[in-house]
């Protein structure tokens, strides 16, 4: 191989490599732009940013705060995120730690909902307040306060509805209705109090 060819070949390889680099960089930038909401750069490498906050109560509060910040009408002198936090803890206590013993009735079911420690107060705040939602759905719902919780009785005249009550069980009844999310926002705004929610 001549001396000239020894110099020409490396130059061609270098030129091709440089062109491929810039083409790849352009493609990478285009891809990064299309995923700008999901990725960031660290030291030149693309890093995917997690969407989940890692803890459900944390995530619910984060979502509410973003809604309040995006609303120019938010009155920050009335906002009470601490009340919302307490209520979300109550929801966690009832969902994860309360025990519900069921007694089926011909026209529905009776649930003895009990717990220990903070769970007892959470039950007493949440379950009686939720009966209003159950009544609004057309069922008869009433509660009786117990030393360690609440007795909830839900019945219906329609046999099909009575069967639904039995099938749903305690937690199925607690999630009925679409009032939770609006109430959470109202609570954060300071315009709704869920029972004795001021207690820590």
How would you classify the quaternary structure? single chain
pLDDT under 50 segments (min length 5)? 3-38, 196-200
Calculate the mean pLDDT score and round it.
82
Overall strand count:
6
- Rg from Cα: 29 Å
SSE sequence, one letter per element: HEEHHEEHEEHH
Fraction in beta strands: 15-25%
Shape: elongated
By DSSP (H or I, 4+ residues per run), the number of helices equals 6
Measured between the Cα atoms of the first and last residue, the distance is 86 Å
The class by helix and strand makeup works out as alpha+beta
Helix content: 40-55%
Strand order of the largest sheet: 3-4-6-5
The largest β sheet comes out as: 4 strands, antiparallel
Can you describe this structure?
- There is one protein chain.
- The protein has 200 residues and is an alpha+beta fold.
- Strands 3-4-6-5 form a four-stranded antiparallel β-sheet, with helices on one face.
- The model is unreliable at 3-38 and 196-200 (pLDDT under 50).
- Helix content is 54%, strand content 18%.
- Strand 5 and strand 6 form a beta hairpin.
- It is elongated, with a radius of gyration of 29 Å.
- It starts with a helix and ends in a 12-residue tail after the last helix.
- The longest helix is centred in the N-terminal third of the chain and has 32 residues, at 3-34.
- The protein has six helices and six strands; from the N terminus they run αββααββαββαα.
- The chain has helices at residues 3-34, 56-70, 81-97, 118-136, 159-174, 180-188; strands at 39-42, 45-48, 99-105, 108-114, 140-146, 149-155.
């Amino acid at each position: 191989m001549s001396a000239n060819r020894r110099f020409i070949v490396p130059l061609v390889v270098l030129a091709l490599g440089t062109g491929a680099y810039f083409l790849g960089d352009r493609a990478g930038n285009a891809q990064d732009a299309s995923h700008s909401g999901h990725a960031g750069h660290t030291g030149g490498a693309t890093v995917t940013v997690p969407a989940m906050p890692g803890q459900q109560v944390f995530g619910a509060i984060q979502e509410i705060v973003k809604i309040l910040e995006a609303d120019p009408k938010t009155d920050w002198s009335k906002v009470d995120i601490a009340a919302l936090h307490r209520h979300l803890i109550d929801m966690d206590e009832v969902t994860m730690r309360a025990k519900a013993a069921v007694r089926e009735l011909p026209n529905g079911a009776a649930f003895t909902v009990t717990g220990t420690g903070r769970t007892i107060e959470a039950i007493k705040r949440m379950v009686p307040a939720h009966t209003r939602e159950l009544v609004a759905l057309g069922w008869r719902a009433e509660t009786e306060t117990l030393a360690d919780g609440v007795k909830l009785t839900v019945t219906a005249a329609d046999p099909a509805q009575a069967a639904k009550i039995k099938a749903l069980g305690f937690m199925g009844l607690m999630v009925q209705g679409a009032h939770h999310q609006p109430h959470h926002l109202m609570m954060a705004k300071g315009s709704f109090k869920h029972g004795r929610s001021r207690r820590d």
